[in-house]
Amino acid sequence: MAHESLFRRRPAGPLTTISAAFSAGALCGSLFGTLDAILAAVHGTAHLTIFSFLGCLAASVLHYALLFMLALALLGVLLHPLLRSRARDLSRRYVLFVFLGAALGAFAEIFWWSRPYVFYGHPVLSVERLLSSVGLALVAAGIGILVARGAMRLSDVASRAVALYCGVCCCVGALYVWIDSGSATRRGVVDERTKDQPNVLLVVVDALRQDTLGCYGDARVQTPNLDKLAAEGVLFENHRTQVPFTWPSFGSLLTGKYPRRHGLVKMAPGYRMPFNLTLPAELKCGTRADGREMQDQDWLAATFHTGTLSTGSGLLRGFDQYFEAMAGHELVTLDSTWSAFRSDLLLFVFRNKITQRFDNAIVASSAREWIAQHAHQRFMTMVHLYSTHTPYDPPQWARELYCDKNYTGPVKAFYAESRIAMERGKYQPTPADIQQIRDLYYGGVSQADALIGSLVEELRAQGVLDDTLVIVTSDHGESLGEEQGDGRLWEHDHMVETNLRIPLVMRWPAALKAGTRVAARTDEIDVFPTVVELAHLAPPPQAEVNDIVDGKSLLPLVRGDLKTQRTYSFAENALFASVCDDRWKLIVDVADARGEKGQYAPKLFDLQADPGEKRELAASQPQEVDRLLGEVQKWSKEMPVREMEKSARDLDQQSLLEHLGYTGKEHEAK
């Protein structure tokens, strides 16, 4: 054994064990630090040159080596009494710790990278995942044996080369991290260009129904923080989204454009929004109404979200920092190459995921810490809350507000898998089950309200609440088992009012009169131009068809200068387009919107007389169908992208819609 000449003279005491553990940790840290650095360079988001890659590689080895050395040293302390009698020399202990380190590292790698293929969507502690983890552990143990045998066969020269590689990486990595940490520029210093502009706190509560908030008339669900914001600011009573699912909706919110203008017409891995001017980018590069040009350093913009959005979606252009809980990314500073690179290293992903286990509100708590640190800079932060999205699984205090203590059914939390089972007829919920699901959702509403309250309180504690434009809205609403045709609708991506009507509350005392309620119909695309005007910026240039901002500033409505914003509001998904005025709403097949014959029959509703959309009136009101169909066809032809693209969720809906009586054939039969 090559290592015996190096180690055999060492005594077999505790220091021998720790020395062996440190040596094995250096080897394993070098191995897995190098492996993960290569994976992060290939699959990650950091923009690397050859020199920055080498610096990040060295820093990766540094962090992994320290972790493995400390972890194996701790194992050495625990195992030393056993090793004292069974492995009396350092070389044997060294090989044992190489095996343990390599097996643990291999298990972490295999477990993480196999997630999309091994019982994806099942809880970590489910029987399926636990049994599969046993199999993965056996594979990892085999890899550990191979690495340990390789370590046994290393020559003295090779062993010293590994030690030299690890040592050089640690020194270079420490120097690189120190230099790179100073590369993040100081942004958001208040100056002559920004002193009269407000900070912006944009809170988007995913899948939040408008009709579940006290300020919108709900008497049961407790939302005191949102109700107070509405009383101190402006509430828009008839606000609507442009698309009832997340990515394209966020695209419309952040650009002021319809989905088929900003181009993010599908939500799928690898799909990306084409280049568009987003709200944070406009704040940093726009032109003030007085002609002064904004500078990139004038604003500091950060986003905190579940990771559903992701940097890969193209939605986060203009943000300087991002926190992605679902992806396991800690707060990333894009001015720092190492910050972006390390967020894709498995070591830091695991650390963030473990932290989330102890903080189920980590998005809001991280955003609150960030506000405390940057309160006196000119900032924009977007906070994406997820408590009203599946799974409906609120904390105990929120459950107790609504859930029946005597309920004994199977619904403890409501997952997307539960929705799929019900849509496919595998499970028929009882009335008690349906009420339980709704009560869980209401608990999520109150949870979101509490998190919003914590953010507002942080602004107040820092003395900048009245200097901040606070906006609370949603990307879409949610269906909670409402009857439709011969079945029930759950979750979202439906063209019903519970999905299309969303809340919008704004507060900034300097420009928005407290207690104002706007009854006019408004759209999600109107938020972008409203913030631009409140920031005293001129509208962005719109020379090309894709540059056109479809939204309009809401300030004329707030001031009472206008009574209505637009004649028609439009929304769409991959299957349907809808158009509504102040009374009528028409839903048509996307093919009908293009002027072709669609698969699904048009549906017409009188929203004034039938806000719940229970009575379909297309057959009795053909003139209204023709009028609104003409408007949606005219609008569709103006869009530069032909249509939305189908995702897996849309394909699932097609079979459901046939069951609910949405096809033209079934419509005629009725």
Briefly summarize what is shown:
The chain has 670 residues and is an alpha/beta fold. 47% of the residues lie in helices and 13% in strands. It has three domains: 4-181, no CATH class; 199-389 and 451-566, 3-Layer(aba) Sandwich (Alkaline Phosphatase, subunit A); 576-669, Arylsulfatase, C-terminal domain (2-Layer Sandwich).
Walkthrough of the structure:
The chain has 670 residues and is of the alpha/beta class. It has 3 domains: 4-181, no CATH class; 199-389 and 451-566, Alkaline Phosphatase, subunit A, CATH 3.40.720.10; 576-669, Arylsulfatase, C-terminal domain (2-Layer Sandwich), CATH 3.30.1120. The chain contains 23 helices and 15 strands. It has helices spanning 4-7, 14-43, 50-86, 90-113, 127-153, 156-181, 224-232, 246-255, 259-262, 279-285, 337-342, 346-358, 362-374, 396-402, 416-423, 431-461, 497-500, 527-534, 555-559, 590-593, 622-638, 648-660, 664-669, and strands at residues 199-205, 234-240, 300-305, 321-324, 329-333, 379-385, 468-473, 479-484, 487-491, 504-507, 516-523, 569-572, 576-580, 584-589, 603-606. Strands 5-4-3-6-1-7-10-2-11 form a 9-stranded mixed β-sheet. A 4-stranded antiparallel β-sheet has the order 12-13-14-15. A two-stranded antiparallel ribbon has the order 8-9. The protein starts with a helix and ends with a helix.
